[in-house]
Structure formats: structure tokens, C-alpha cells
Specification:
Structural class of chain A: mainly beta
Number of strands of chain A: 11
Oligomer: heterodimer
Low-confidence stretches of chain B: none
Distance between the termini of chain B: 36 Å
Helix content of chain A: under 10%
Shape of chain A: globular
Strand content of chain A: over 45%
Mean pLDDT of chain B: 92
Radius of gyration of chain B: 13 Å
Chain lengths: ~110, ~120
Amino acid sequence: DQQVKQNSPSLSVQEGRISILNCDYTNSMFDYFLWYKKYPAEGPTFLISISSIKDKNEDGRFTVFLNKSAKHLSLHIVPSQPGDSAVYFCAASARGAGSYQLTFGKGTKLSVIP
Amino acid sequence: NAGVMQNPRHLVRRRGQEARLRCSPMKGHSHVYWYRQLPEEGLKFMVYLQKENIIDESGMPKERFSAEFPKEGPSILRIQQVVRGDSAAYFCASSPDRELNSPLHFGNGTRLTVT
């Protein structure tokens, strides 16, 4: 039972264009969402997060949008750069005793073509 | 300012042997988490420890797996009598506290291969 789903295993985007990575979740107890970026042979690196009390959070070229009614979030990268090529993981947590437990999606491999 | 350090980076074990994975958290971090990533999967929570205490091991398999975080030294994830299904990347993360605004900082992982 996958509670966090990233339905696109891969995505290719031209340099300078927008990259949109999508994530769906099923657990209505999730109230905090994060995106991690992972290069091969490295650990995941925190990118950006959003609390369920917000619908948008922006940090430089990265913006995360949250649609709670649809249980959907997306990560926008504008403009995309070749160095953004990596696997992006969506993760979620629920407030409470297990709030440190992140539930990860399977990841989307982004390739930014120069 | 070293990040989360994991060793070894790669570990090969034959079926039935023991695997010991080490994790030193970031300086100033007293909370350690272990996650496992099976091939083609996302990371899955295994265990959460503070110094000398296991706080939550709900993600750990009931048998053969154990974890500790002693007063001195790194956190250890121990897998006894390894089987092929244990082959995975094991990531350690740390944080200064349990607050949600303290995102986890991950190490580069230990890739365990069981032959």
C-alpha cells in the first residue's frame, strides 16, 4: 500500500524550461511534505518543504504547491539547469508520535538537457 | 563542518554472515534515523534513536536486525545472518531535534550486497 506516489519514473526537460514533478498521497493524516534531491551514490539532500496550512512555498528557483483537497503536490523548477538532473523524492509525515517518520515516494528521475 | 558520515560505503557479505553499518551524526545532532532503500523503491523508515535509547523501531524487521546509539561512538545497524533480500542501500540521517522544521540530513549510505 503506497501512501506516497510519484507516478512518473522519469522526466526530460530542456535547459531553461520549467520542470514540474508531481506527487500524490493517500493518507489524510499527512500534514508536512518535503522534496529531496538525490544524485547517484549520494544520500538525499533536503530541497524544500511545505506545511499543510500553506498552499505554496517558494525558495529561489524551486516552488512547491500543495492541493490538499486533491491530495496532490508538485515541485516546479524554473529555469531548469543541467545540474538539476537527479532523482527527486517526495516525502510526507504526520504530526504526532511518528512525525519523524518520513514516507517516501519511489522518486522521479529528472534529466535536464543542455 | 562534517555531515553525516556512514561507513563502509560498500559492504559485501555472504549469506549467513553479519553486517555492521556505522553512522556518525552531524556535530550537535543527537537524533539518528536509519532508512533502507530497496532497488527501484523509495526510502523506508527503520528505526529512530537518541543517545543510548531506541525511541521507535517500528520499521525494523522483527528478527536479525538491531540498532544502537551508544553514549560514545557512532550508531550501529547490525544485521545478523544476512539473506539476499537484505541487499539494499542503508541511509542514516540525523537531526538536532524532532521538530518538523528540522529536516533530516542524510549520509551517503552504505550499499550492502549479499552474495
